[in-house]
Design brief:
Length: 56
Amino acid sequence: MVLGQIIEGVPVWKLGPQARWQAVPYVVFPGNVGDEEALLRVVQKLGSSSESRQRP
């Protein structure tokens, strides 16, 4: 299931029950999207998202 875009042109998918790691977001990052900082921004967003889930 497609959850949306983490940045413009970069979709994030939620994997189904058949996936080995269902809790890991599946990010499809096309090579022709974004600038030289785009991948860094995506990693930072994913990191801050997982940190907020781990905090009580």
